[in-house]
Structure formats: C-alpha cells, structure tokens
C-alpha cells in the first residue's frame, strides 16, 4: 500500500523514484569509495595509454559523474523536500492545494513542461488519475512512471 505523502505536486510518486529510494546515489558512493580505496586512478592512467582501453582517458570525468550521482537524493515534496527550485510546488503552495490535479489549468500549465523530457506525459496521465479516481487509487498503484 502506498503513502499519500509520497505524491508529488506534479503527479509523480516518490516511491517510484531513484532519488527518493537513494539506490543509485548509494551505489555511486560505494563505487567511488572503492575506487578511492584501491587507488584506481593510478590504474586508469596506466590503462589510458593502451589503445584498447582508450576510454580510461575520461576517468576523471567519470569520477565527477559518480560524485554528482551521490547527490541524487530527495526527501519528496510531501515531506517538505524536493528540489528547492520547483516552480510547481511553489505554485501549489500559493494556491493552497495538495497538487496540480486540484487545479483546473494543469493540462495547459507550462510549469509542467520541464518534466516531458524524462517522463513523457506520465505526469499528466497521473494527474488525470488523481483527479478522476482519487489519491487512494493512485497510491495503490494506478499510476504511470
């Protein structure tokens, strides 16, 4: 059974998110730590000189990405977390609503457009489910990812 506090203002569900469950951040942290502990940088520099392992020339960038992945965590909108820059959450707060499904303008709202690149129209479909079927159906699995 789901948790209402994990519903985002924009119609996503934190329980389905890599940022909320922290798995990617945790694994990236463990890999970065292991690479540091084994001084893998020295090996990467050596491998980079071998044409077969040419990709190791990008090792420093790879480590930067791992460090960034370690920061991909989120407490979720419902508990006051979520990205501080989120215009959607700010808008819902100003309108004193739980989420966009309570607003009659969500289908044409430009604030939701930035989600299209990673979620397609899943958030819009979810907002429809929330509006038409309610929170309980949504948290119990009637949603898109």
TrEMBL record:
InterPro entries membership: DUF3795
A Pfam family: DUF3795
Protein name: GON domain-containing protein
């Amino acid at each position: 059974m789901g948790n209402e506090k994990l519903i985002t203002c924009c119609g996503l569900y934190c329980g389905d998110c890599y940022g909320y469950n922290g798995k990617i951040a945790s694994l990236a942290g463990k890999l970065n730590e292991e690479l540091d502990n084994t001084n893998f940088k020295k090996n990467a520099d050596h491998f980079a000189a071998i044409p077969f392992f040419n990709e190791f020339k990008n090792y420093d960038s790879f480590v930067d990405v791992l460090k960034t992945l370690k920061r991909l965590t989120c407490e979720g909108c419902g508990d006051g977390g979520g990205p501080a820059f989120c215009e959607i959450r700010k808008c819902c707060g100003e309108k004193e609503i739980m989420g966009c499904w309570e607003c009659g303008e969500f289908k044409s709202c430009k604030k939701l457009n930035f989600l299209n690149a990673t979620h397609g129209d899943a958030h819009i479909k979810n907002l429809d489910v929330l509006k038409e079927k309610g929170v309980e159906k949504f948290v119990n699995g009637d949603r898109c990812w």
